[in-house]
Amino acid sequence: MTSTERVGTDGPGTPAVRHRHLRHVVFIAVAAAMGGFLFGYDSSVINGAVVGIRGRFDVGPGLLAQVIAAALIGAAIGAAVAGRLADRLGRIRVMQIAAALFALSAIGSMLPFTLWDLAFWRTLGGVAIGMASVIAPAYIAEVAPAGYRGRLASFQQGAIVLGIAVSQLVNWGVLNLADGDQRGQLLGLEAWQLMLGIEIVPALLYGLLALRIPESPRHLVALGRTDEAKAVLKEVEPEGTDLDIRVAEMEAGMRREGRPNLRDLMGGRFGLLPIVWVGIGLSLFQQLVGINVIFYYSASLWQSVGIDPGSSFFYSFTTSIINIVGTVIAMLLVDRIGRKPLALTGSAGMALSLAAAAWAFSYKSGTGEDISLPDTQGAVALAAAHAFVLFFALSWGVVVWVMLGEMFPGRVRAAALGVAAGAQWVANWLITVTFPSLSDWNLSGAYVIYTAFAVLSIPFVLKFVPETKGRTLEEMG
After folding, report:
1. Which superfamily is assigned to 22-213+260-476 in CATH?
2. Are the C-beta atoms of 235 and 213 separated by less than 8 Å?
3. How do residues 163-204 score in pLDDT, each as one tens digit?
């Protein structure tokens, strides 16, 4: 397919436009989404190092869970500040800062002296995750032409799931080199240290790619640099676009909206603008269905129900492959059938899958590490977990990031995205730190709770979530 072929549509019933620089636009989206790759990699790589960290520092499961979750606290902080930094310094500069923090975190996590400085370096990496989780969807939404925006914005989630899968492959490879021992010696380090340190490679790549892509045209217009904005638009907009009109639309929108300010998020009966609450709701539901239980605790979860460690790592990796497949499906459909239909389909599928898992885990027998499931229930639990990941990936995994990048009015986009993403990371932290206790109390009960949130997400989407398919960002105001 060449960069000038007709691809997709710009909206319902609208013929596809001829695009001169589609490959260039795709490169820009891929470079920005590299932050998502690191987001997924950093979030998941710790899964393979848990046993090694516990042995090295001789800590119990409660304190270890806090160290694992430290990155999520940092992510909430990074998400909260990213919007303001992006409005002040520009989208590209924030990407470069995030890349530097990822690199520092990788080095520090690889060479910790104590458990507490490991927690610090994980928190610093979390700040980078939070910044990347905000800046990538905001930047892609502002650069991408309306007819391609959903698919390009979905690169963020595609990169996240790819990062998760690659981190698991890296962990598997390092573990094999260390003869299956997370504390085995490799290059003068323990295997788990090498797992965490390898992240410096994609971190440096992210920083280099951020040097190769242009600043957001909307940010340039906000700074009065209209000639530079037109130069960027010329490279990303479809053939025949009147650049003067596009810039004039942006300027008119900014005059109407005023200068960005956190106070602009305030309004309505409940403190924040209704659309900001919708964004927070999307973020909360995305996490409260328990998706990250699968990726943070997958190996230990399958071992806890009687699956041997070698097979548990295999099943953890298969969920990542299914995650990638589901994400590709969503990328193909998000601009064709819309955001809301995908979200509703995913909610229904997740609810059924989680309910099946809850049923299967109710047959758990044994205590402590001596736990098992009957053969039938074990098979159902495995199938349900994989189906859950598939339905999440083809819906909420992609749709939430796409919508957060495009649903807010321009004057509050970066700040509102930061608030919504911050809420997402707080919910992620809550799920992460509560799952060990919930599973000890009642593993089936934990999945009943996640099922309830999947069911509740259906009326939330129907009543509150707007459809943004085919609309320009200026129309979102």
Report:
1. MFS general substrate transporter like domains (1.20.1250.20)
2. no
3. 988 988 888 889 889 888 888 888 899 999 999 999 999 999
